[in-house]
Amino acid sequence: MSGLLSEAARRFCDAMAAGFPGPGDTAALRAAAVPGPPGPAVASVRDTVAGGVPVRVYDTEPGAAGRPLVVYFHGGGWVMCGLDTHDALCRTLAAASGAVVVSADYRLAPEHPWPAAPDDALTVLLWARTETTALGCDADRVVLAGDSSGGNLAAVTALRAPGLAAGQLLFYPPLDASMASASVETYAEGYFHTAAHMAWYWDQYGGDPAHPHVSPLHAPDLSGLPPALIVLADCDVLRDEGLAYGRRLAEAGVDCTVQLHPGVFHGFLGLPLPAGVAALRAAAAWVAAVG
User: Fold this and answer.
1) pLDDT tens string 89-102
2) Could you tell me the pTM of the whole model?
3) What distance in Å separates the CA atoms of residue 95 and residue 166, rounded to the nearest whole number?
């Protein structure tokens, strides 16, 4: 752990932070969450509805069979972002892994506080399980995935649906609403994703901070969960809770790999940084090998 951003990451961090509103104004934050550059071409991209939840399905090879199926939950503090902001990331993951990716447009807080988002996440997983054959996928190769708050939803859904997923792919997830780790203080300001933002997101989201379906790190028993890949940024408020979750999974006998990327900040995934490219490439390879 270096504790310092690379020069390139620092430039991106400062540029992103300069145009990003502080916590407290939901409308302003949502307006600032705009899609980045487009992702790769994918043979079939279609919008549909999964048990009442809007989803977008990415399929690089329609008609194929036996592939992994990724159920993806976008980040944004449970307050912002959606299918369009994460379109490029989902395209990249589908193209690089060969998996079908189902991106979920779950309900957002504060209009729809906890447990709306995790309920939608579970609904999409259950829908995806019933559609695996139609989607050309293997029901034994379903992966729950997400970045930031979406990583929380992936972890929570794995807890709520034992035996229904073969893997969980967690990109810098918030896992403890108490925010009681050292990295919260170390990286509270100056690294784009601030401690003040995270505390505000938790407040909007709601729920009992000690409940394991709010804070998976508080779950009393993690045994029996599917294999996990946890991808973390070194310079991130959420770093230490991700490390702690990885340790707890391993202690519970869960096959868990933690990849800690030095010199980068929360949100580096998909940025034109070597670490972002490497993280997505490694995640895609991990997905391709699931099952």
Assistant:
1) 999 999 999 999 99
2) 0.98
3) 20
